[in-house]
Known about the structure:
Blueprint: H1 4-14, E1 18-22, H2 26-39, E2 43-47, H3 49-55, H4 57-71, E3 75-82, H5 85-94, E4 98-101, H6 108-125, E5 130-134, E6 144-145, H7 162-172, E7 176-178, E8 187-188, H8 198-208, E9 212-214, H9 222-231, E10 233-238, H10 240-256, H11 263-266, H12 268-285
Parallel strand pairs: 1-2, 1-10, 2-3, 3-4, 4-5, 5-7, 6-8, 9-10
Helix pairs in contact: 2-12, 4-5, 5-6, 6-7, 7-8, 8-9, 10-12
The structure holds glyceraldehyde-3-phosphate (G3H) and zinc ion (ZN).
Amino acid sequence: MKTLFDYLKEAEEKKVAVGHFNISDLVALKAIVNAAKELNVPIMIGTSEGERDFIGEHQAAALVKSLREEFNYPIFLNADHTHSLEKVKIAAQAGYDEILFDGGALPFEENVKQTKQAIEIAKSINPDVYIEGELGYIGSSSEIISEIPAGAAVQIAQLTTKEEAAQFVSETKVDFLAPAVGNLHGMLKDVPNPRLNIERIREIKGAVGIPLVLHGGSGTADDDFLAAIDAGVNVIHINTEIRLAWRKGIEAGLKADPDEIAPYKIFPPALEAVQAAVSARLKLFNKLVTLPSANNQ
Ligand code: G3H
Ligand code: ZN
């Protein structure tokens, strides 16, 4: 089977992006896989430190591996937002395909230092594991938020520059880069999320030439996604939107029959809601839909 890197190169050539979705449980995993298989597109599954504390690193890796093998399907697992070197080690040992070492909130030199250590540790365990580095702080919670988190890079002066990106990539030798380009983790409650800085994405891509990962996808405008892909983004992360769909689905499942106690009879509305949310994003990222002209300008 082709590697994750092959799929990202292919996405780059086709000017599409690979969708990356986080999971806390089997309901979301099944929903994401159903949506991807229906559209026949490669997929990435992410588990943050909290999510993998709940699922278990080895269990998440075993689930993804079993789906890849049973269906001969291009599904890859990322240890999302890993902050400690110990967690890097555990993810590499468990068989994750990718590890995001997130030093985005650290001063630049410290981020370079720790990212290099993460690469050394991970690749000494599995030389084939990909390491993503993060530049700039874009908030840390995949939740409905009432305001932009303190210190998050949303003003132009706080965004990742092409010079920083080039220096970071050349010093660390990361495989993929996640820059701060106006993106934000979580979805603002009452107002739309900030717009992406497409020009900055294009400049960074030109300066680094490696796959770019856009975090904080939830709540981003559809036309920003398409412009970001055309400017050089190869992977897009979505979490809050599917958490929201999951919760609404669980509530509907519980409400449908207050006496029901069989989990597999309560879960289907959650599975369907997550699948619909993921499917809509995958159609957009893989350019399988055309936007209505008003949203396309
Ligand atoms: O790594 C996870 C993502 O960046 C998700 O961000 O919750 O804003 O979609 P989001
Ligand atoms: Zn993220």
